[in-house]
Model the fold of this input.
Amino acid sequence: MGNRIKSVAAIHDLSGYGRCSLAVIAPVLSVMGLQPVAVPTAVLSTHTGGFGQVAMEDLTDFIPQTLAHYQRIGLDFDCVYTGFLGSRAQIGHCLEFLSAYPRALAVVDPVMGDSGRPYRTYTPEMCAEVVELVRRADLITPNKTEMYILLRQEYNPAPLTHGEAKSCLARLSELGPSQVVVTGVELADMTVNNLAYDREANRYWRMVCSYVPQNYPGTGDVFASVLVGGILSGDSLAIAIERATRFLELTIKATYSYGTDPKEGILLERNLPWLAERHTFGGYEIL
Done:
């Protein structure tokens, strides 16, 4: 059936306020013509970045029950996409999901830290478990901090040379995934880039990012979701990275211009239609 809508099992938390996790993943995938199937790992009143004590319901036990139900009714997926996980048990449940759908594109966003530090909930034992999840992935999307955690190296804030960047990408691919995307990497030419490596094609890519002096929650979720949507819609890795980078630039700049409270996240609602226009690109560069 040529008109079948591709589906994505998105195993992430759901924050009610603050525009991150499933609250942004679902609309992005939908507007790109895919069916997001939410598998929430936890439900939170807001994200945890500045709203005080949040109300939270842990859903660790819900994940295997969901998988069992989907298997009973013969539900299939084109992609299994994992993000922030709250416990080692949830990592194990994600591995079970990947085993249940071996033909699905396995995308792992190894959300473990930022700004040179792991999140406080990610112990060394949990980080080691995430490496096992990465080994099962086809595509991973770490940031620079998570890149060093996966490589078991001390974080280095210095810009990378092209050679160092390519070495890191190749070593990440050696863990298992054939495609690697690392976001927010400053290179020695003083540009901030999203970098990629496709092992099967043996090609390295870079997308230079515009700088805006403000951080917003949920941008990593938006980037990875647009990337997934692009690849499942037929984009090459380079084109998918450019689509994700340009959409995020557009949305961040629009948000910054309105001067809204950064805790509220990016103004996704105003810019979602851009994703449905299927722009043609050619601004990516060979690394």
Summary: The chain has a mean pLDDT of 95. Residues 237-258 form the longest helix (22 residues). The first strand starts at residue 7 and ends at 17.
